[in-house]
Structures are given as C-alpha cells and as structure tokens.
Amino acid sequence: xxRRLALVGILCSLVSAGQVALAQDxxxxxxxxxxxxxxxxxxxxxxxxxxxxxxxGINPHYTWFVNxxxxxxxxxVDAIYTPEKAGILRFRLIIQSTLEGERQESQVVQEVAVYRxxxxxxxxxxxxxxxxxxxxxxxxxxxxxxxxIRTPVPATxxxxxxxxxxxxxPAFRGADSIILWTDAVNGLPSLLQAFQRAHxxxxxxDQNVVLVSAGSLSFLAQTARAPFAxxxxxxxxxxxxxxxGSLFRQPDMPAFLASAKARDVDVxxxxxxxxxxxxxxxxxxxTEFMLSHGIASQTILLLLMLPVIATILSFxxxxxxxxxxxxxxxxxxxxxxxxxxxxxGLFFFLFIIGVGTLSRSFTARLHILYIPKVAIIITIVSLxxxxxxxxxxxxxxxxxxxxxxxxxxxxxxxxxxxxAKAEQGWTGAGSGIIQTIIAAILCVLIVQWxxxxxxxxxxxxxxxxxxxVNILVGRYTGLRLAEYLRFRELLKRMxxxx
Length: 498
Fold this sequence. Notes:
Strand content: 15-25%
Mean pLDDT: 80
Helix content: 40-55%
Strand order of the largest sheet: 8-7-9-10-11-12
Number of helices: 20
Number of domains: 3
Low-confidence stretches: 1-27
Structural class: alpha/beta
Largest sheet: 6 strands, mixed
Distance between the termini: 123 Å
Number of strands: 12
C-alpha cells in the first residue's frame, strides 16, 4: 500500500513538473523582427526597422550590429547604415527586456545585398536550371548582383504568369536591366500587362528590358514595339541564351551593345529610334493598340489564328477530303485545344460528347419536340461541366475565365454530334468525331509552332493572305485526295480501258 502511495506521489510530481515546464515554454517571449530592403546600391543608406518585433516586459533595449563588428551601430528601435562597398551585409539585432524580474532576450540576423550594378533575371520554368546556373557562374568575376527569379508557371499560362510578374515588380526596382528568359512569344506582352496591372509603368523608365529567346530576334523585335511604346524603358534588347554571359561581364548596357557590335553578335534593339508602325499596316496598328490597352497577347493571338485555322480546315475539306462537322465545330475545337491545352481540351470534348449521348437516351423517353430536347441536353451538359470544374477546384486546378467561356461554347457542340448520330447512325457520327478531332489537332500543331506564332505577331497583315488561299481552294474542281484513294480501283480500270 505504501509503495502504491509512493508511486502515485512520484507520478503527481512528474505531472506537476511537466505542467510547469509546459507553462514556461508557452510563456510570452521576445521575438525580434527586422524590416529592411533585400538589396541596396553602394552609397545609399539602409534603413533598418524593428518596430514589428514582439516585446514582452518593460524597458526594451535594442542593439544593432553589422558583419560581426563588436561596436553597435545603433541602440534605438531603428538604425541607418550606409555601405561603402559591394557585398553581403549581415545585420544582427538583439532585443532585451525585463519580465517579472527576469531578463528576456531575442536576436535575429538579416542579410542585405549591396551592389554597384543590379540585374534581375526572370527565368521561365521551362528553362532548365543548369542553363541558368551556368550563365550566372560565367559572370563570377564581375562586380554584379544578379537576382534570379524562377517562375512557378510557364509563360504560356498567361494569366498566372502575368500575376506572378506583377507580384515581383518591387524586386525590379533599382535594377539596371530586367532580363526575361522565355521561349514563349508572349513574354514581353506579359511583362507589359504585369506593369499595367500594378499601375507602375513609370518604374521602368530608367531601366533596360532584355528578352532572351532562341527564336528569331528580328521577328521578336517587331512584337516588342508595342511594349516599348507603353513602358518606355531605356531600350528593349533581344539576345540569344549564349549571349547572357557577355551581358553580365560588361559594366553597363551601352558597353555590351558596343561589344556585341564589334564582335558581330546577333542582337536586336528596340528604342526611341526604331521606326513606328505606318498607316498602311492597319492590322499591326490594331494589334499594338490592343496590347497597349491591356488586352492579353494570347487573346490577340487566338483571334489572329482563327482565319488561319479556318483556311487549314477549308483546304482539308475541299482538297484532302476530310469529313468534319462543318467548319464551325473543328474551329472551336482547335481554339479550345490552344486555350486549354491539347489533352485537357480533348478530355473535355469527349466528356461533353459522352454526357450529351447519355442525356439523349434519357430525353428520348420524354417524347417532346427536338428543340426543347436539345435545350435540356445542353442544360445537363452545362451542369455536368459545373460539377467537373468543382471537382477540379477541390484538387487545386483552377481554370481562367476565358477557359470557362470556351467550355460553355464547347457544350453546344454536343448538338452537332447528336444530329449526325440521328441522321447517319453510330458509324457515321463516330467517323465524323474522329476526323473532326484529327483536323483540329492538325490545326493546333501548325498554329502552335513557335516560329509561325512569331511571324503572325510580328507581321499580322500576313493573315490577309488567307483570303488569297481560300480563293485558290474555292476554284479547285478536281477530285479530292480521299476520293483518289476511294475510287482507285475504278480509276485503274478506266485507265486500262483507255
């Protein structure tokens, strides 16, 4: 009995000690916080602020140190330090106070980069990290601060890419050059939209914008005129990836351009001396006007590609002999593949067709007229898309507003399939779907080709040539290629009889 009482006493003592220790751990403590810029140029004062620190007790005392020097630079809630050379400064803050007769202490360290020349490199997520690191290591001997920003989304994801760039604008301040490394044609227009969205286009007037791309610099220079006209930086420079190291090693942009000219390096420059678009280029004028007023380059590209898609489909139907659900359905399907991505767009299209077919079998029992029946089918398809989008959102997949509108337009395509099924049966409707998908994929492969997109954005008047192509296709009266294959035996016999 005594042993049990002793054990119970020991357990109670341990519990009490644990509660005391836990109470001590949960007791309020000082928490030092430094508010300071991430980087600053040589000779400019660094303002350090500790007002956001959490302090308990009374009589707080602040002590600021820099780079391990024993003498403090300040003993107040804030401090000012002016660096005299480039490098990394490490500021250490110690906060002491008194709580119930006990001394409370907290400290924190904050690093600030000091530079003579700053360059911000924004690298698209599609650019391999080893390429970026190799170019940075090539400039290791230069007195240069390179702030590297890796984008979490590719430049082709226009809305999210623009939003990310808009959030990074504070990091661009003080930079000699903003380098945008992406192979997407909408890199510069996205940067333009980001500054417009943040209402800070004046922040870039004293800076250089550099676009790094493996594509044609002459074509990209044509697309850079609209961003330059709105942002008004010092200049927009277009270079290839293997030229970045040379840019880092030069003391400034004029020195780099002079060196590139002397070594005959391929560089394109857009500045105040670049010729503007003339009145006999109406499509270019319209395109630059839309870009300068915040219209997404992806939207403009889709509009410019629609005549091209229609022309490709016209050739496939009239000359090749592919059978599709008219011209409207494959055009909308191709645009949806461009906006949503090939596999996502194909999944949604097959989902719409599947739900539409099931809805048709359900509404057949209602014995109502055709038009109200189709309206019910479209309603069921729309609700099914709503459910699918809700499931996608639950897993963190959020589609843009433009994508949702495209899905709503795609929901009306179920009517074309149901009409073909009623007239031709499963075989004819299935063949029509397969050929429609093939035609849409072929259109996407052509218009998604990066050099072709650069050509259209650089010289948008080129889409007027689609009218000439359609006139030539419209005058073609011979057999279609598919008909040559279909009637090859008959053609052989006719050739033998002759």
